[in-house]
Amino acid sequence: MTISTFEDKPAVDRQKMNLLGLSPEKLEKFFKDMGEKPFRATQVLKWIHQIGVDDFDQMTNLAKDLREKMKSIAEIKAPEVVSYHESKDGTCKWIIRVTGGDCVEAVFIPEKDRGTLCISSQVGCALDCSFCATGKQGFSRDLDAFEIIGQLWIAVKAFNSFGDKANRVVSNVVMMGMGEPLLNFDNVVDSMGLMLNDNAYGLSKRRVTLSTSGVVPMIDKLAEVSDVSLAISLHAPNDELRDQLVPINKKYPISLLLASAQRYLDKMPDVRRKITIEYTLMDHINDRDEHARELAILLSKLPCKINLIPFNPFDQSDYRRVTKTALYRFRDILKNAGHTVTVRTTRGEDISAACGQLAGTVSDKTRRSERHTNKHQLQPIKFVMS
Ligand code: SF4
């Protein structure tokens, strides 16, 4: 099998409009500009996102001359899959090369009642959370919409190509991979629009979750245009500690963050909806009983569920995983205070796919990564895309 690289493609191809990341509205405009009826957009959306077609010749309900015209000005081009890895627990990870040569990662976590795809929104991340492998890589750039939705397109197409072997279906998408999604707002919103659109992936808004470290003004902006599920990466019960773990807290402290989360919920028509609070537990950092008690009080007025995540160590990390005893004590204090609490099971650790371990390959423009040595080296086990 030949794995082509971006550099192999002739320059003329790169100037074509890539239809993969176009929102339904932009695709309609594309056809309108061609003098075509808007319903062509619906047809093409279905071909691309529901059937996984990237060849205009396969779009048999379009006239041949229209297909030829489209071929001359447009393309459907997903980012390149560099390698595919499967964990012994069934977790799947794709390393995906994006335009310019950097790589991002997407991870699929199969569970009994769902299959969740965790996708990246940026190449690296500028926010430098102290417990995050992506943060250590520095930041290169925002992903284009086709590079974001392309991760879902690649996963769905791969599972279809496996046949029914493992019965893997992407039922949920979380924007929790590399990057801060709210700092790549337009491309993330366009991509989530495709995830929700019935002519594309048709996922319910409850099954698409955007996770943010707390870019407060953009949470308000998101509420204006979308009602997907919102997760807040909190990780600390007070500003003093959160300033150290999640540096953006110095700009948008916890009180502002939780107020914006409440405003987000207030805009939702469904009063039963809740914010997910993510709290990564690190040994002797944020896992003490007093932290749990402080957190319980802090969140007492916000409709939320708390997801406790045992820290997943990576090569350059300064932290250790919470002990089981501390984890369950922490959980029980929150539960006894009346909170809904789940503990995230660590998945895909053997392929560095666990939460907080995604690193990719980043041409770091922040030069932050020069302080670290990247020792993440994976051996691919098989390719799934041709
Ligand atoms: S935790 Fe999220 S926001 Fe923080 S550095 Fe990692 S990717 Fe960026």
Output the number of helix runs: 12
CATH architecture tag of the largest domain? Alpha-Beta Barrel
User: Which fold name is given in CATH as the topology of the largest domain?
Assistant: TIM Barrel
Helix content: 25-40%
Structure characteristics:
TIM Barrel, globular, binds iron/sulfur cluster, DNA polymerase, domain 1, 2 domains, 12 helices, disordered N terminus, 32% helix, disordered C terminus
Summary?
With 386 residues, the chain is α/β, with parallel strands linked by helices.
Topology:
Blueprint: H1 11-14, E1 17-18, H2 24-33, H3 39-50, H4 64-73, E2 74-75, E3 80-86, E4 92-97, E5 103-110, E6 115-118, E7 122-124, H5 133-136, E8 139-142, H6 145-162, E9 172-175, H7 185-196, E10 208-212, H8 216-225, E11 229-233, H9 239-245, H10 254-266, E12 275-281, H11 289-298, E13 304-310, H12 324-336, E14 340-343
Parallel strand pairs: 1-2, 6-9, 9-10, 10-11, 11-12, 12-13, 13-14
Antiparallel strand pairs: 3-4, 4-5, 5-6, 7-8
Bound molecules: iron/sulfur cluster.
What would your notes on this structure say?
This protein has 386 residues and is α/β, with parallel strands linked by helices. It folds into two domains: 17-75, DNA polymerase, domain 1, CATH 1.10.150; 80-371, TIM Barrel. It has helices at 11-14, 24-33, 39-50, 64-73, 133-136, 145-162, 185-196, 216-225, 239-245, 254-266, 289-298, 324-336, and strands spanning 17-18, 74-75, 80-86, 92-97, 103-110, 115-118, 122-124, 139-142, 172-175, 208-212, 229-233, 275-281, 304-310, 340-343. Helix 2 (24-33) packs across helix 3 (39-50). The radius of gyration is 21 Å and the shape is globular. The chain starts with 10 loop residues before the first helix and ends in a 43-residue tail after the last strand. The structure holds iron/sulfur cluster (SF4). The site of iron/sulfur cluster has 12 residues, from helix 5.
